[in-house]
Amino acid sequence: MSLTDTQKSQIQQTIANCLRNKFQNYEAKDNLMPFHFRLLGKDRMALYLFMQSLLTTFDTSIFEPVAAALAKTQFAKVDLFVENADGEQFLFDLKTAKPNKGDFQKYKQTLLEWAGIAYTVNKNAKIHTLIAIPYNPYEPQPYQFWTLAGMLDLQEELMVAERFWDFLGGEGAYIELLDCFERAGIELRPEIDEYFAKFNR
Q: Does residue 189 sit in helix, strand or coil?
């Protein structure tokens, strides 16, 4: 199922709003970096520092709201705890593309706790707890599962990139979502340029 033009527009607007919100709430640190400023320019250094801040919070400030918006196209309940028409619940924990091996023990514990809580509420519930990784940094090669070895059932407890986004939005959603990000970037480019140009004034 492809996304409708209205759905694409709503998702693109979600992306744009998330980035605008980040700009409004971002406090540029007044770090004195005289060599960097002179070599690269204050605007480029400001952009670099902003990007570092954005990448640190990308999962929560961008991917989570976009995933929730996309899930609304397919599921009755959203917010990364989605339920299909048959009453099956899918509880996603969205993680960075390159998590540390040690973190997966914590992730597994979180999944087990979620399942336990859900079954306490309804012992007959149909629950799926999964780790979601929004993109594959190794593409076109398969995602490198060595960090997950023995920690997760890779078919039942993990969705990466296209599999995750297509699950939420239907077949082809991943590709359409990439287009939404590109269109949002084009729409925001003048605002981004204006924001960082002030650092050279």
A: helix
Q: Is 101 exposed, middle or buried (0-12, 13-18, 19+ CB in 10 A)?
A: exposed
Give 33's contacts (C-beta < 8 A, 6+ positions apart). Answer: 45
Q: Which of 118, 119, 112 lies closest to 153, judged by CA?
A: 112
Q: What is the pLDDT of residues 154-197, one digit of tens each?
A: 788 889 999 999 999 999 999 999 999 999 999 999 988 888 88
Residue for token pair 């960075």: 96
Residue ranges in 33-161 assigned as alpha helix (H)? 34-40, 42-58, 64-71, 103-121
All domains of the chain in start order, with CATH: 1-73+171-201 (no CATH), 75-169 (3.40.1560.10)
In sequence order, what are the beta bridge partners of 128? Answer: 90
Residue 49 burial class via C-beta count within 10 angstroms: exposed 0-12, middle 13-18, buried 19 and up: middle
